[in-house]
Amino acid sequence: MAGIISTVLQVTLITIVSVEFIIGSLGNAFMAVVNIVDWVKRGKISAVDQILTALAISRTAFLFMLITSLLVTLLDPVSVEKRIIMHTISWTVTNHFSVWLATCLSIFYFLKIANFSNSVFLALKRKAKKVVSMTLVVSLIILFLNIIVINILCGRPKVNTLYWYSSNNTLKVYAIFLFTNTMFILIPFTVTLITFLLLIFSLWRHLRNMQYNAEGFQDVSTAAHIKSLQSIVTFLLLYTVFVMSLLLQSWNISFQQKNLIVMVLRSTGIAFPSVHTCVLILGNGKLRQASLSMLWWLRCKYKYTEN
């Protein structure tokens, strides 16, 4: 009976992961293609579209890394311990850009929408593109440090290869890898949380000032604040779930004894780059219109095929 339940749960989790992977892959590919086609037509691309395109590409790569790791764990749990270290650097790089580009998007929205009279903020607001570029440069430095720390903590001892490839030791190394990456991605999480709190404060000041102005005078600004807040809140919630899944994986790292737990945690983690992309598409006017046009085209083609 327990075996049947375990099999049913595995099939359910595989189905959920497959759906998340398909939605994430199609959503990110759609976002990248629409922005690139628009770029070719217009001969230029906005800063937001640049970030969204880079984010879509990085998340596509990250999703393929996640699904590859999960399939290896599921289909060949015995040899996964010997192969898992091969994925660490690729996982780190794709995850890094996926998270930091989303953070840059939050920073850009914050600088463009928030209203503060502080001279430093106004200077940053005027140079929003440069701020985002500098954030990416800083993130590259953090990525470099992250890789160095991983190599130091998870480096293979040359004197005893058999010990390094032993079951317990390899799993401990992978647990350290997960925990180290989680600590490093808390940095962009903190940055996004700060922008979220500052955006709430900006909205509060804006609503308070509206009491002294004509009704509806700054409704556009209010709508922009709320729209940006919705996007950042979704990002933070999914990001929190993703971070917690990584931490729990590093604490429950025995693949052979807790394979089902690992699958649950990883299926939860895949929701971050998949669902957030859908939220970004629905929150962007151009992408939302393009998605509706594509759905209408598919509907018409399906009806034509039936007839």
Q: Uncertain regions: pLDDT < 50 for 5+ in a row?
A: 157-167
Termini separation comes to 48 Å
Radius of gyration from CA coordinates: 22 Å
Contiguous helical run count? 11
GO molecular function: bitter taste receptor activity; G protein-coupled receptor activity
Keywords: G-protein coupled receptor, Glycoprotein, Membrane, Receptor, Sensory transduction, Taste, Transducer, Transmembrane, Transmembrane helix
Family: Belongs to the G-protein coupled receptor T2R family.
Membrane topology: Multi-pass membrane protein
List keywords for this structure.
glycoprotein, globular, sensory transduction, G-protein coupled receptor, 307 residues, Rhopdopsin 7-helix transmembrane proteins, mainly alpha, transmembrane, receptor, 0% strand
Give the secondary structure arrangement, pairings included:
Blueprint (H helix, E strand, L loop, with lengths): L1 H41 L4 H29 L4 H4 L4 H26 L5 H8 L1 H27 L6 H4 L2 H44 L8 H33 L7 H25 L1 H22 L1
Helix pairs in contact: 1-2, 1-10, 2-4, 2-10, 4-6, 4-8, 4-9, 6-8, 8-9, 9-10, 10-11
